[in-house]
């Protein structure tokens, strides 16, 4: 998922180097915590970006983590920048190790998500073989951290939104799985389909040849609704505002929006709204999408989770936002699909700041947790 309104994560790096150095100190976990992970799927979670994606990333306050856990959240998906991992050395690896250990200590399951930087995305376009090697190097550096953490609580995710064609990704996915398995035989591996990790892309992807895996997809449909007023590129989504949910092309608010866009000469944005609402976007449509996901899971005997979904909170009406989030969450749970919301405290967020216990969005948290109140 692209982020909003933040400075670049890292300066340009022309190459990744292997991070050598001393072994990380072992955590004081009891032996029972190191038993092989079951096939339970992490759920009831949120994404926590901008901590290990940059050298000066911001850690959440202990009190905030405690309140989130007490509210009913059980999982944190933690994006990690492979560039930083491979160039930061032992100090960076220790910092990641300590951060994940803290989250586990609060009772969270943690998905450690290898999240490509803009530089790595560019590398996949210009030199795919070199880019693939960089991801392998990043996991080679990071896997001792994962190996030292309990398999029942920590889940390595091979690569977020793999920026390549599916055939190339399947080959790299196997290589990454083997890289991790060399040091982490009991951890559940998480992977998603190329190239957007879309629910539709998984249907043509086979599972890993591994007995301990979870397939992970993202869901932001319809984009005209979930990304309206986005501000990080020149997409027509930036010019769409106040689109409701649920909606059809004949919903008065939709007709008014299309009319305003056409009057302003913005045929591109108007056509995007019309195309995305050519069929109704309702709870039934979303439930159908997740029912298809459940069929894939059953057919392949592979657990599935939804580890990104969300609505940008720039110009959407609050009721439509909570309705969509609740609808997607319920559809996932009805299909035995675990979930982590994108994300905690930025443009899609559910709290104002990871540094404060104030500013929790009670309506959004209720939509996610099924009406359970704050502590």
UniProtKB/TrEMBL annotation:
It comes from Mesorhizobium shangrilense. This is Exo-1,3-beta-glucanase D. It is found in: Cell membrane. It is a single-pass type II membrane protein. Glucosidase involved in the degradation of cellulosic biomass. Active on lichenan. Its main location: membrane. Keywords: Cell membrane, Cell wall biogenesis/degradation, Glycoprotein, Glycosidase, Hydrolase, Membrane, Signal-anchor, Transmembrane, Transmembrane helix. Residues 41-345 form the Glycoside hydrolase family domain. Belongs to the glycosyl hydrolase 5 (cellulase A) family. InterPro entries: GH, Glyco_hydro_5, Glycosyl_hydrolase_5, TAT_signal.
């Amino acid at each position: 998922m692209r982020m909003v309104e933040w400075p670049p994560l890292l300066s340009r790096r022309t190459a990744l180097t292997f991070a050598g150095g001393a072994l990380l100190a072992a955590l004081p976990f009891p032996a029972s915590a190191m038993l092989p992970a079951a096939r339970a799927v992490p759920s009831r979670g949120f994404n926590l970006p901008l901590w290990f994606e940059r050298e000066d990333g911001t850690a959440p306050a202990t009190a905030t983590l405690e309140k989130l856990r007490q509210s009913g959240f059980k999982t944190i998906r933690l994006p990690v920048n492979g560039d930083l991992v491979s160039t930061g050395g032992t100090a960076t690896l220790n910092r990641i190790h300590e951060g994940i250990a803290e989250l586990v200590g609060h009772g969270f399951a943690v998905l450690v998500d290898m999240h490509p930087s803009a530089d790595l995305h560019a590398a996949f376009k210009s030199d795919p073989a070199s880019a693939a090697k960089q991801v392998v190097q990043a996991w080679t550096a990071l896997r001792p951290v994962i190996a030292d953490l309990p398999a029942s609580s920590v889940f390595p995710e091979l690569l977020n939104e793999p920026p390549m064609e599916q055939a190339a990704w399947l080959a790299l996915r196997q290589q990454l799985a083997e890289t991790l398995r060399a040091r982490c035989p009991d951890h559940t591996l998480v992977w998603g389909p190329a190239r957007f990790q879309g629910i539709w892309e998984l249907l043509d992807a086979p599972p890993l040849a591994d007995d301990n895996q979870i397939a992970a997809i993202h869901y932001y449909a319809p984009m005209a609704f979930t990304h309206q007023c986005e501000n990080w590129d020149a997409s027509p989504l930036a010019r769409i505002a106040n689109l409701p949910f649920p909606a059809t092309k004949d919903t008065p608010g939709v007709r008014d929006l299309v009319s305003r866009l056409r009057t302003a000469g913005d045929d591109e944005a108007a056509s995007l709204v019309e195309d995305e609402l050519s069929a109704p976007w309702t709870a039934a449509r979303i439930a159908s999408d997740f029912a298809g996901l459940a069929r894939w899971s059953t057919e392949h005997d592979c657990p599935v989770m939804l580890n990104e979904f969300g609505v940008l909170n720039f110009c959407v009406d609050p009721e439509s936002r909570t309705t969509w989030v609740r609808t997607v969450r319920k559809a996932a749970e009805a299909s035995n699909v675990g979930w982590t919301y994108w994300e905690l405290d930025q443009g899609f967020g559910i709290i104002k700041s990871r540094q404060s216990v104030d500013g929790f969005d009670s309506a959004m948290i209720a939509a996610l947790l099924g009406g359970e109140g704050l502590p």
